[in-house]
Amino acid sequence: MRAAKRTAQATQESLHRIFTIAEAPDSTLGRIEQEMSQNLAGFLGNHIVATKNALSDIEQDFINAQIPEQPEFVSDHMQHLLDKLVAQSVHTSSASFIGHMTSALPSFILPLSKLMIGLNQNLVKVETSKAFTPLERQVLGMMHNLVYQQQDEFYQAWMHSAQHSLGAFCSGGTVANITALWVARNKLLRPDGDFKGVARSGLYAALQHYGYKGLAILVSERGHYSLKKSADILGIGQDSVIAIATDENNKIDCQQLKAKCEQLAKENIKVLAIVGVAGTTETGNIDPLDKMAAIAEQYQCHFHVDAAWGGATLLSNKYRSLLKGIEGADSVTIDAHKQMYVPMGAGLVIFKDPESVAAIEHHAEYILRKGSKDLGSHTLEGSRPGMAMLVYSSLHIISRPGYEMLINQGIEKAQYFADLINQHEDFELITKPELCLLTYRYAPKAVQELLARSDEKTQAELNLTLGKLTKFIQKRQREDGRSFVSRTRIEVARYGGEKIIVFRVVLANPLTSQAILQDILHEQTQLAQESENFLPQLLEAAKA
Ligand SMILES: *Cc1c(COP(=O)(O)O)cnc(C)c1O
């Protein structure tokens, strides 16, 4: 029996204890661990409470900027975490939370993550990672193989070579995209005669040496905002990321891409990279990668494919061809923490040419010595955890055919949901799913008919009100906490390219059933009736 009131003390003994002795099985932490390992979904379902707390209220629980002078017992602290943090978290793995690209995790991930954290290897150098370094190199090899399908001899020659790397493992798609464009920049503005290269002499000297007025990155208007961050930190400038128009299927218009390449060549602005998107974040569509590869070849520029979200589709023999032409890319970004069901913090960039990373090679005396197999000599990040182990294990435990089933069921579920929306007279499908992502909105039949017979000006007014209604429904649904869809604003060709607010769903969670999808439409229909202004206003207009 513990005393009712006790306070923790910061003593040598208590510090020694937290480094050596596990919490008892019947302690708060012990019970949490048991509950989580027996049934993670149940644990999350029990402890995340769906209350309508405003973020400003939650901030009150995290308001004190003092570092504690008084230590807490682990159990007391765990109770605090359950009450203030876990309870007010988002149930990302819930089968009815279909708004984001992060979904459920397989149950084996939890104990494996614990092992990974416990080992606490640092992948920056072999000295602190040993077997983790060859493991990560093998994962990069497998992912390279997924994209480029080279012969076995290729992988035997390059996978473990000290001077080469088939890619870089990093924290996510953003760092992967930055790394790809960093390589592209340094290869383009490489050392030449007396010029020491952009990496040493900087962008100003590089442009002068090569006689370019500027650099540009070309990507469709659906490109991810991480490309602008990349251009910013690489010194190229955000405005040098040039958005190319998309067609009615949200794919880059290759005519316009070519025209832009021509125009820039005349202005003496060098295209640093053409970026294809394989699964846009907002609509899930895939650019015509084969055509883009040919254009990049013609204009002699780096071709990068941002397949952060959609890259995992390559694991499906049935749908792999949706990304045809990806093998023409010089570099490819894939996030394992999206459709590969690995926890956050696992992104990759793969390079076609094993020599590419030489362009960003860095060495230091005490680590990353020349000729060492240290992964840190080719990565943007320094100290890095052994996340590659979770990708490695998932690839072994789930295997390619298992992933194929997950990918296929997501795509087919999105097709089912699109049918459901099309059949429901009060919903309007905005973008058809190509992968497992689609957008739609609530628009009563009468309003849809009115839209169809209205001129552009009236359409714009109606779309504005429909947008407010969509926002109202989405917020209420999120606050109610039973289910979640996200929302975004996209240009829609059928409304003259006007930006409209839509619901967005990503159907990656294998536990999302058809019944859940039906319920979501039902819930949205109900919530729409609670909007005091927007729905009556729209119905009134439709009657007139
Ligand atoms: C998610 C995503 C990114 C960014 O990846 P993070 O892992 O969030 O850094 C980049 N591009 C696309 C297409 C994405 O979907």
Describe the fold and architecture.
The protein is α/β, with parallel strands linked by helices and 544 residues long. Helices cover 44% and strands 12% of the residues. It folds into three domains: 12-89; 117-397, Aspartate Aminotransferase, domain 2; 404-543, Alpha-Beta Complex (Aspartate Aminotransferase, domain 1), CATH 3.90.1150.10. The longest helix has 36 residues, at 388-423. Pyridoxal-5'-phosphate (PLP) binds next to α9.
CATH topology of the largest domain: Aspartate Aminotransferase, domain 2
- Kindly provide the name of the CATH class of the largest domain: Alpha Beta
**CATH-defined superfamily of the largest domain:** Type I PLP-dependent aspartate aminotransferase-like (Major domain)
Architecture of the largest domain, according to CATH? 3-Layer(aba) Sandwich
Q: How many structurally independent domains?
A: 3
Bound molecules: pyridoxal-5'-phosphate
Distance between the termini: 75 Å
Helix/strand order, N-terminal first: HHHHHHHHEHHEHEHEHEEEHEEHHEEHH
Q: Which regions are unreliable across 5 or more consecutive residues at pLDDT < 50? A: none
Strand order of the largest sheet: 1-7-6-5-4-2-3
Q: What is the overall shape?
A: globular
By oligomeric state, this entry counts as: single chain
Beta-strand percentage range = 5-15%
> What share of the residues lie within helices?
40-55%
- The secondary structure category is alpha/beta
Mean pLDDT score:
94
Give the count of helical stretches: 18
The major sheet is characterized as: 7 strands, mixed
Round the Cα radius of gyration to an integer and report it: 26 Å
Say how many strands there are.
11
